[in-house]
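Async update (no meeting this week)

Hi team, since we skipped the sync, here's where things stand on the single-chain job. The sequence we agreed to prioritize is pasted below, unchanged from the tracker. I ran it this morning and attached the output directly underneath so nobody has to dig for it. Comments welcome in thread, and please keep replies under the output.
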Amino acid sequence: MNVVIMGCGRVGAQLAALLDEGGHKVAVLDTEPYSFRRLPSSFNGTALLGDGTDEDSLKKVGIEEADAFVAVTQGDNRNVMAAQIAKHVFNVPKVVCRIYDPLREELYHTLGLETISPTTIGAQMLRDKVIG
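Output:
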């Protein structure tokens, strides 16, 4: 699978490493060059400095050949914007974005976006630990 990841924070770097170890083709895009330090030395993918909301940056990172796009920056708005560009402009078959705000997550579901909310998942897991 050919995967483009926007955001090389802890989650983006870990996801990139897992996919790379699994034999997938991985490209990571981030606006901060220092972020790429999180990638393991064994990483065989591509790390490119650029903005995932910019079509030229997305083309450079290979979005036109991507099977999947994952947006995991710290900003909900950037993640949603990039996810919509990947889905509607470049027709990437599988697009997932991280959304911290649970209220926004519901709204974005109505727009047809596949989202993950660590806020909701974390709260559910903590609840289960507390009452389970």
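Quick observations from my side:
Residues 8 and 34 are 9 Å apart (CA to CA).
The first strand starts at residue 2 and ends at 6.
Reply here if anything looks off.
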